[in-house]
Amino acid sequence: MKSIRIDKLTLNIGAGKDAQLLEKGVKLLEQISGVPPVKTITSKRIPAWGLRPGLPIGCKVTLRGEEAEKLIPRLLAAKDNKLQARNYDRAGNISFGIPEYIDIEGAKYVPEIGIIGLQACITLTRPGYRVKSRRVRPARLGKGHIITMEEASGFMRERFKTGLEE
Fold it and tell me: Number of folded domains in the chain?
């Protein structure tokens, strides 16, 4: 029950109000993942930023299973297989940004997209994590079952040969 596994990989591009950047982001995520992305919609009104509810401001793709396992090494290669300690959170999730998509292995430069970056988030779980999200009798996870930052970095080091950058 203590074995760690990858639950999902989420790729995200925030575009703000810029509709052209959003369309470029949709094309980029589809090119990288092979899955059509979903546009994220605002739910709050923020007048200072010119946002209103229902306005598309970004796009994201969630990959699970084998698709995620194949894409993670390519994304880590763009970071030279080195992650910083701040890329890990206390729940064992890993988040990092890639400033230019052409650094990803196998991604070719497309002139109509230009140079844009994206964010990647890897969510790790253990068997038994379902108890916190199930519909009938959800329960909290025990302290010993939560994935710590050290366990997550050890998993990434063992599985994907990543190192911690100072």
Answer: 1
For the domain that residue 88 is a member of, what is the CATH number?
Answer: 3.30.1440.10
Q: Which of 61, 64, 69 is nearest to 34 (CA)?
A: 61
Instruction: Please tell me the distance from the alpha carbon of residue 29 to that of residue 13, in angstroms, as a whole number.
Output: 8
Q: Please answer whether residues 11 and 29 qualify as being in contact, where contact means their C-beta atoms are separated by less than 8 angstroms.
A: yes
pLDDT at residue 166 in the model: 66
Segment-wise mean pLDDT, segments of 10 residues, the chain, 166 residues: 93 90 93 93 86 89 95 93 92 92 88 92 94 94 91 93 82
pTM: 0.90
Task: Give the per-residue pLDDT at 19.
Answer: 87
CB contact burial 32-51 (16+ within 10 A = b; e otherwise): bbeeebeebebeeeeeeeeb
Report how far apart, in Å, the C-alpha atoms of 1 and of each of 16, 80, 138, 142 are: 41, 32, 18, 12
CB 131 within 8 A of CB 139: yes
| pLDDT for res 18 | 85
What letter represents residue 58's amino acid? Answer: G
Positions of E strands within the chain: 5-14, 38-41, 56-63, 82-84, 94-98, 118-125, 163-165
